[in-house]
Amino acid sequence: MMQLYGYDTINTLKVLMLLMETDSEFEYVPINIRAGEQHKPEFLAINPAGKVPVLKDGDAIQTESNAILLSIARDQGWGLPENSNEYKAMISWLFYQASTQGPHFGQIEYWSKHAKAPNPEALAQHRSIANRTIQHLDDQLKEKPFLCGQTCSIADISLFPWLHIHEHLGLTLRGAENLDLWLERIRKRPAAKKALAFFGPNSMFEK
Q: What architecture is the 2-78 domain classified under in CATH?
């Protein structure tokens, strides 16, 4: 059985969503990153980078959340567009999430929730980029229900978690009706509901 090493984080949620979309059997192994468990020798033996999530399937170990999504999607035959142009768009979205959305939304969470000393300039800079990201995504959803076309893909799963908690970050979707509808479309999926409830009522994912 596969083992998912993770914590109550954005990147772990992505993997949970796809595992539940594909009805995959897995064992969840919590790694409390707030307590520093990711730095323990036994976990570093699994992922020397000291990061979650990690998906272990027998002797195979996959790290990096978007890479894990690609591996599961390939193995389970879910979330990969058959159309060549849509597939290429999906790959671009995965890289966009890792290079732009994830880092800047993550910095907003850090400077607004966890930093020991405030840095208004840094927070304002990352909010500005996040707002441009929201507008960009809204524009891309004007004529289609999902980012790559008519069907939900791993691109949607990858970009969903940070947007799901936009209010927690002090961001607004005002004027981004297409993106707001997309969010609700994904939240209503049975697998998404299961994943969002996975960490319990005290999780930031529970609305």
A: 3-Layer(aba) Sandwich (3.40)
